[in-house]
């Protein structure tokens, strides 16, 4: 088997295992812990492989996944989503204010509808994240 094919195969297996664990019906902390264990297990196994390219690829990908997992904390995601929601709501409010200030009644109703929908969508997303 060629080195690149073997590296891609092992990398794909690592990503597949990670996704399988992430979508398992367990708590987030437990799921992340299990994924971390699987990543450590894969890194330990790859040390026995003689192909330098395969080792390098698998180690890089597992470290990349570990780094991304650190940012996949529910509280952190909710905090970012709340900040984005505020930005969206402010932009929608600014749009309504601008249209109102320009005296464009034809656009005012549509701009206000956009603002209301933006608020509803952001609240819905935040509710889903918090539950």
Give structural notes.
With 131 residues, the protein is mainly alpha-helical. The chain folds into two domains: 3-72, no CATH class; 75-130. Helices cover 85% and strands 0% of the residues.
Summarize the helices and strands and which ones pair or pack.
Layout: H1 3-22, H2 28-46, H3 52-70, H4 74-101, H5 105-130
What would you say about this model in short?
With 131 residues, the chain is an all-alpha fold.
Structural class: mainly alpha
Tally of DSSP β-strands: 0
Subunit organisation of the chains: single chain
Largest sheet: none
Q: How many whole angstroms does the radius of gyration measure?
A: 23 Å
Mean pLDDT: 78
Based on the model shown, name its key terms.
mainly alpha; 85% helix; 2 domains
